[in-house]
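Task: sequence design from structure.
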């Protein structure tokens, strides 16, 4: 029996692919419905790569959900996995009380959580009217609340950009999106379609100094920052708003993985995974945003397809591993190691660069040999570079390999 934890798109895809291969799968979801984040993402832009269609989040989710029920996957809703041990004991708290499962493999498809205000170090206490962007999205799109009348978006991640447009459409006066980095955090499509098309200004190299108010947010003071992130004197500007949204990044949800003693990486803040999305602990896999933050749902679900193949072939994370290390201007790599004993088919290496560049090269090499070199018209941290790594590329590689931007 295989347990998939999390009924978002990645968990659903893992369950579908495993069931198609004849496996006995149980899909466990803590919410009362499947879909993960997707039901609240009512904008389009999902599934362009995977289905070749421009779907909304709910449409993408429903296409997977239909397949789940058509195949007869065992789905347990309103059921939360509260503990997982290294020995593969899975404890589920559900409607009938606690349950103990002992599967042959566990797929963590637990998604991500949003970084809160505390992650950006703004002094003072949190006031009513402050939200993380995904929470604001849930309240607007699922619960039907109007969350404010005038808003400032802090951080230009994709969720913030999507919510800037969404609030504007709801009649909220969206003053601006401010971003502490000298470049936007979200993908170009969202900058064009959510900000430019709706005349919402984007201020880069700006940070929040204070958020003030009594019973609710009343004003937000922002200022320009220098290259060290320090506020530049005389650049203060005050926005009179009753709502602030934070879109300052996502982190893989790793609490359960830590309980199973799965090693967590500093760079991705997710588990160490190899080309089969297997963690170093046999029988434990991590997919989607629970493995690392993917740029698109299409890539998140691809990771689940890889895992189902690995489980089907009886994969074991034993043998000779080659580490893949981030070099100059590379922030995130997925996977972070290759099991050479099972390297008999190509896999996709996902690279998130550290800063934007035009006409730069991505290079993969070991101490002696360059195995990949390609020039990209534009590289942006928000958009992952996908590189196909084939066994023949690494034939003579002995030690570790490094990925760099030149
Ligand atoms: C606001 C927003 C806008 C986006 N816009 C786009 C876009 O335009 N295009 C695009 O391609 N992608 C977009 N994405 C990204 C996309 O939503 C994600 O890639 C995708 O949802 C990741 O799927 P997942 O299954 O890994 O995680 P999730 O969707 O987060 O699902 C994780 C699931 O695991 C469940 N879970 C967690 N812990 C437990 C537990 N202990 N027990 C049981 N269940 C548990 C959760 O309840 C949840 O249902 C957007 C994301 C957000 C937040």
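Answer:
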């Amino acid at each position: 029996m295989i347990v998939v934890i999390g009924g978002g798109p990645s968990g659903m895809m893992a369950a579908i692919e495993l069931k198609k291969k004849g496996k006995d799968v149980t899909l466990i979801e803590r919410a009362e419905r499947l879909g993960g984040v997707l039901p609240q993402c009512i904008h389009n832009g999902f599934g362009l790569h995977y289905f070749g269609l421009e779907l909304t989040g709910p449409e993408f989710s429903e296409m997977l959900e239909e397949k789940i029920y058509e195949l007869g996957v065992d789905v347990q809703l309103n059921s939360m996995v509260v503990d997982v041990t290294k020995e593969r004991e899975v404890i589920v708290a559900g409607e009938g009380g606690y349950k103990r499962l002992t599967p042959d493999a566990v797929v963590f498809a637990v998604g991500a959580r949003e970084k809160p205000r505390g992650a950006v170090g703004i002094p003072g206490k949190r006031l009513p009217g402050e939200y993380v962007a995904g929470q604001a999205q849930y309240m607007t799109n699922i619960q039907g609340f109007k969350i404010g009348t005038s808003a400032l978006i802090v951080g230009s991640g994709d969720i913030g950009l999507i919510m800037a447009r969404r609030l504007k459409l709801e009649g909220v006066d969206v003053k601006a999106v401010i971003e502490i980095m000298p470049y936007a955090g979200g993908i170009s499509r969202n900058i064009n379609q959510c900000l430019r098309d709706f005349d919402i200004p984007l201020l880069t190299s700006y940070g929040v100094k204070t958020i003030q108010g009594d019973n609710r947010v009343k004003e937000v003071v922002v200022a320009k920052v220098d290259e060290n992130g320090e506020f530049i004197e005389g650049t203060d500007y005050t926005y009179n708003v009753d709502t602030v949204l934070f879109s300052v990044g996502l982190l893989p949800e790793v609490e359960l993985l830590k309980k199973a003693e799965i090693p967590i990486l500093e760079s991705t803040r997710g588990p160490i995974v190899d080309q089969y999305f297997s963690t170093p602990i046999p029988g434990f896999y991590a997919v989607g945003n629970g493995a690392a933050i993917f740029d698109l749902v299409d890539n998140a679900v691809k990771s689940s397809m890889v895992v189902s193949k690995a489980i089907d072939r009886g994969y074991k994370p034993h043998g000779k591993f080659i580490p893949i290390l981030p070099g100059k201007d590379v922030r995130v790599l997925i996977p972070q190691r290759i099991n050479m004993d099972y390297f008999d088919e190509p896999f996709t290496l996902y690279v998130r660069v550290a800063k934007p560049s035009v006409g730069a090269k991505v290079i993969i090499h070991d101490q002696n040999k360059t195995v990949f070199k390609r020039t990209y018209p534009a590289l942006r941290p928000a958009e992952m570079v996908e590189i196909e790594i084939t066994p023949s590329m690494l034939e003579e590689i002995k030690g570790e390999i490094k990925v760099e931007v030149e």
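The mean pLDDT is 95.
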